[in-house]
Amino acid sequence: MQLKDIEYIRTIAEEGSFSAAAAKCFISQPALSLAVKRLEQELGVSLFERSTHSVKLSSAGELFVSEGENILRLSHQLKEHMVNIALMKRGNIRMGISTFYSSYYLIKILPSFYRLYPGIHIDIVEGTSLALEEMVLKDEVDFSLIPLPLRSEGSLEYQVLQQEQILFAIPSSSPLRSKLKSSLARDFPFIDLSDAKDESFIFLKPEQRFYRMGMDLCKAAGFRPNILYELTNWDAINTLIGVGMGVGFVPELVTERIHKNIRQPIYCRILNQTAIRSYAVVYKKHKDLSLEAMDFIKFLPHLFHN
């Protein structure tokens, strides 16, 4: 079976006759009939119900056309993608990403993209998530990789790349260990956040996107956190918690990296369904992105899913 076989069957179904379909496919009617007969023999089913006045799809034929159209669509997308690769020998992309996430995600993104598009230069701009959102609005970058929610959602579009679990971290020597609840999945233990109401917290600064989410999680647990230090970087928060300076929130991403000679905190899942947020690629609505930028955005979900 070839792609042209699918196109033949679809065209016959659309035209309702072999002669009209043959003319549309620029093939003789005997050749078209022979192609259909060969295909039906190969598949072991009749694709059409034939009569002296009309021809229509059988139930097997309807399924063939339905599934075949998906194959044709994917084939068209593949050809289009290959053409894009051939055309994009040179170009420039301006991408925003926060300093913290760049150290985790660029190693996943850049090598794979470079192998396909070695001639595309990527100008990487690092900053806070809020600053990067503003840069998208001002056309200072083509797009940014940042967590949701957005401040200016009405002016922006986004595609979610993954869901990010927010964990609660405590020092290994913390008395809170006795209150943790084991996970049946041998995963991180669970913590009732209200048990930490009297602890000293290490928080991100108010201008950081997570600040409001952290405050809301504490409020839902019935307390306002006693904030000992405010920082701008998750890794620094993680390190200070590990050496016993306090407790705090961290994204699950930090657990992927083990630092030698640095004590690791105990990571806990929070008994709150809102302790999760989306990480997305964000770009300006109604903006004509370059071919390179659009293809990069299409490429991102594949990289994150793998």
UniProtKB/TrEMBL annotation:
GO terms for cellular component: protein-DNA complex. Gene3D superfamilies: 3.40.190.290, Winged helix-like DNA-binding domain superfamily/Winged helix DNA-binding domain. GO terms for molecular function: DNA binding; DNA-binding transcription factor activity. It comes from the Bacteria. The keyword NAD does not apply. PROSITE patterns: HTH_LYSR. Residues 1-58 form the HTH lysR-type domain. Keywords: DNA-binding, Transcription, Transcription regulation. Belongs to the LysR transcriptional regulatory family. This is HTH lysR-type domain-containing protein. It comes from [Clostridium] citroniae WAL-19142.
